[in-house]
Amino acid sequence: MRHVVLCLLLMFSIPTFANEADRLTQANFPAQSQQLALKNQAVLTYLWADVYAAALYAPADLGAKQAWDQQKALRLVLYYFRDIDRSDVIKAANTTLERQQASARLKPELDQLHASFRNIRSGDRYALDFHPGRGLNLEINDQVVFSSRNDALARAYLGIWLAPKGLSDELRGKLLK
Hints:
This protein is an alpha+beta fold. The chain has helices spanning 2-12, 14-28, 64-69, 86-99, 107-115, 151-162, 169-176, and strands spanning 36-46, 49-59, 74-80, 125-131, 135-140, 143-148. Strands 1-2-3-4-5-6 form a six-stranded antiparallel β-sheet, with helices on both faces. A hairpin with a 2-residue loop joins β1 (36-46) and β2. The radius of gyration is 15 Å and the shape is globular. Residues 1-18 form the signal peptide.
């Protein structure tokens, strides 16, 4: 069943993700002319339940790991299969950031970012969109709900999924392969 759901998601949702990334890049950053392309995707499973599908976008001319290592533009999209209480999401994020020893100086902005969260419903789509020098946008269902020009915040928050000691080593490996 998991593979059927993933295939359906990929057939119907992933092309939408790619179109959004292309449109966002073209509309807001024409001087950069830097296209983001789908690099990898994976499903996070917790206690035998699929929680979300993740799709990672990076510049077309770079691999996912190379883009992460070189701090290039990235877009991480999470499509949720389950309802999740916002307090659980925030707790998991904070626990991961503490484990990764994120800078305490980021706490005020992290609190602002977390304040923009809402209870997740099955079918919701969260996206973290990072462009160096511009910072981070958090989108919920295609609406920007949080923006920060702080590249360090973007790096730390994307690190929840992409840095060592994150939420899932298996997910990280699949996204950065």
